[in-house]
């Protein structure tokens, strides 16, 4: 996994998220878009601040990938989020992590 590439992909996803909120949510963030933004911002912070990404945060990215397919289907945001996930799959053991599930998009992200 390339740290620089991941940061660029996260930045792109954050930009696409802002566009999604404007175009599809009428400028008002939903709990799912709030949770997605929180995960992306935490991921960006973790990548730049620590040698290893927090395991709970990586598990939250699994939930974010489900939201990408279910909620953001067919939008540029879906593709941007999936690009982030594809880069994370380069981390050894990432594919074996269990998602957080229950709390994603329900007001208590990560």
Largest sheet: none
End-to-end C-alpha gap: 22 Å
* Number of self-contained structural domains: 1
Number of helices: 4
Silhouette: globular
Number of strands: 0
Strand portion:
under 5%
In percent, how helical is the residue content? 55-70%
> Mean pLDDT, rounded to whole units?
87
The radius of gyration over CA amounts to 13 Å
Low-confidence runs of at least 5 consecutive residues? none
Sequence of secondary-structure elements: HHHH
Q: Structural class of the helix and strand makeup? A: mainly alpha
Q: Would you give an account of this structure?
A:
By secondary structure, the protein is mainly α. It has one domain. 64% of the residues lie in helices and 0% in strands. Helix 1 runs antiparallel to helix 2, helix 1 runs antiparallel to helix 4 and helix 2 runs antiparallel to helix 3 (55-70).
Write the layout of secondary structure elements.
Blueprint (H helix, E strand, L loop, with lengths): L2 H22 L6 H19 L5 H16 L5 H13 L22
Helix pairs in contact: 1-2, 1-4, 2-3, 3-4
List keywords for this structure.
0% strand, globular
Brief rundown of the structure:
By secondary structure, this protein is mainly α.
